[in-house]
Design goal:
The complex is a heterotrimer of chains A (200), B (327) and C (300). Chain A is α/β, with parallel strands linked by helices and 200 residues long. In chain A, 28% of the residues lie in helices and 26% in strands. In chain A, the strands form two sheets. In chain A, strands 6-7-8-3-9 form a five-stranded parallel beta sheet, with helices on both faces. A four-stranded antiparallel beta sheet of chain A has the order 2-1-4-5, covered by helices on one side. Chain B is mostly helical. Chain B has a single domain, classed as ABC transporter involved in vitamin B12 uptake, BtuC. Chain B is 73% helix and 0% strand. The longest helix of chain B has 35 residues. Chain B is globular and about 65 Å long. The two termini of chain B are 37 Å apart. Chain C has 14 helices and 13 strands. In chain C, a hairpin with a 4-residue loop joins strand 8 and strand 9. Chain C is elongated and about 60 Å long. The chains are: A alpha/beta (200), B mainly alpha (327), C alpha/beta (300). Chains in contact: A-B, B-C. Chains B and C meet through helix 3, helix 8 and helix 12 of B and helix 1, helix 9 and helix 11 of C.
Amino acid sequence: MINVKNLSFYRENRVVLDELDLQLEKGELVLLSGSNGVGKSTLLQLIGGVLKPTSGEITINGTDISEMKVKDQALLRSIAPQRRIFTLAYSVGEVLHLLPEKRRSFNVDLIIESLGLVEIMASKVTELSIGQQQRVSLAIALIQEADFYLLDEPFSAQDEDSVLNLVALLAEIKKEKGVMVVSHNTGTHYSQFDREIKLT
Amino acid sequence: MKKLALYLSLLAVIVLLFIASLRIGIIHLQTPLWDLIGKHDGIDATTVWDVRFPRVFGAALLGAALGVAGVIAQGIFRNPLAEPTLIGLTSGATLGSIAVIATGAAAFGSRTNVESAVLFAGLAALLVQLLAPNKGLGFLITGIAISAILTALAGVMISISAKPGVQSLSFWNFGSLAMLNNQTLKIIAPFIELGFISAFMVSRKLDIYSLGENSSHYMGVKPKQIRLWAIISLALLIGPAVSAVGAIAFLGLLVPHIVRLLVGPSHRRALSFSALIGAIILMLADLASRTLFQPHEIPLGLLTSLIGAPALIILLRLRSAQWVSHD
Amino acid sequence: MKRSVKLLILGTALSIVFGASAQASGINIGPEQLKLPVVKSGEVSKYQKIVALADGSAEIIAALGYKSNLVGRDIASTMPELANVPIDTNAHQVAVERVLSQHPDLIFIDANTSPTSALDVLAKSGIKILKIPSAFSLASVVLKERAIASALVVPKAEKLLEVKMSSSVFPKSKTKVAFLYLRGNASIYLVGGKGSGADSILSKIGFTDVGANLLKTPFTALSAEELIKLQPDVLLLMTKGLQSVGGVSGLVALPGIAQTPAGKNKRYVTVDDSLLLSFGPRTISMLPLLQQAIAKVAGS
């Protein structure tokens, strides 16, 4: 379980998150919603360990992440940032296999197929459309073997069909894992989520 | 398979260049090369083993080191222009070398001299990191500024020191393999070997790191740690090279671009190929520098600039540098 | 990586272990060992107050017996015998006021005397100024002597040094010598070739200048293979030149030196920097000393 307790985060003396409590358990698909600028992405960066909380604590499976090595955190949770920088012309296939095999999820093929990447496996990531790049970025995160998956705005550059396929994939993954999707706009797929956390 | 074939052919080119370089020179060998193996006496044997061998082996070793360093530098600074010369490493190594020679603490080509070059190269790179406002243009400009300061300090030390072996600024800035002998090689080789091992270990993580700092953190590679590791690798590769032969321009910039064109961006693959390509270019340059205008020798750095800079422009024009700018 | 490890092992195996290194045998020739060879014609010069600004001209005037006529000298005439004659330049710039205050009746200059503005002032003051040739070889010392003697109007003195020089005959030797011009702290490492100046000295005292035989220009950047090709038995160096590369150990570390007979046996002769290539009367006294030194080092 990811357990966020009494979490506050200040940026330059401005309150971004104030005494927030939140849980994510295995077997659930959670939607984290809220308008732009309420700190959804900040929360993900805190859970990911990139930012340090001003106060409060974040534990994964009972251990405070501030006491975990970066390497060990990555074995427990995987995060798809809003934007990934593709500066080098890797092929899609290469970029999906950057992690060593033992750290890859067993359902790699399902992920690649659901995200519509089969046809573009040989294409260079730098030459893809924004939507394709976003799906590659999501695939990178989902292929990383972990207990919890947190995706930042995964639908923002996707068409209706892609969103449908992605939500179906997440519903499959959540059977064994915990999944949280950060989004300010879920369209018509609200019903697929087990619950919604509104950040205000 | 295609890549294996390419790898083997590059290796074959190196072997051929090695043999050719041992045979070609001002002195025309009277004895076949094969018969000189194991011989230590006579003009032919001393010419081949004491004069040509350290140069040719040095060119291969240092060329490989500079090529690998180029890949690591561009990878870690996520910038296609991040060449060891531009980010303070080379001038740091130069200052480190000159500082111990000028103060009389160590002789040119000694182990202390190499250690100081490695240390200063690393510190210079850290300083650039510390002072740079961002990872893009600001980073490069900081690198250039720090390099200018360090080179100027080195120049001041040269001007006020009367110690033998301090060499001239042009030796340090343009590079020459002419001062390389077997003793110096034995001292610098272990450092460079360590640099290769360290670079190889860091290379896979560099692929992950290339997706961005946060992304890298999420995937289990701590950015701070990998940067430190890469800088240590760079210092181990660049420091010994500079302390022995001065700065050799453009190699670190050019080689990774050629390699990516041949085998794609993967750092691990790029590493072994850039070692080969770097070795080939420097061996060719050295052969040219000592044979083109006999008996005059052209400083190596001038040749690598003359060949490297136009080649780089062509590569960039081909839009095959395989970098996309995000700054 | 594996490849380079293998190459390294191969390299170490192939690299050559030197035999026991020979004891260094070098001789230094300094200015204190040389006396000015004074030869007098007995003639009285028309000029009583002479300022010698041409490089080395004061030495020739003194050698011809007219030291008491000198009121000022050039900075290149360094020998101790001239210590009480004031130097009339600041570094190499002519000090006009100093010259004028000595009221000379004759001034010697050469192509190197500068600045021209100073010379213009001296010319306007009505003093006789005479330009004489510079000397970069033994033969040109003779021309310089002639020019000076004829200016002083002492015809018998015109050939005194020349006779002294040609009367000293040296045995021919098979020893091969190479002249190196070294300035280690400026990365200047040169081999003397034809016209270096050292070639005229070496051939006069009976040795072969291997550099002059093979290299057409006065100086060529030292290249290891070029030097090995020359195979010198003895190296001729300047005293400070040797110091600038860190002495004998620094010398043999230069590319190619250790692979020559001279480097292997550390055989060299050094001559004071201000002496070796400044051609004048002292060169005449230097010749026998240098000849003996090279012969001794070569035979050791």
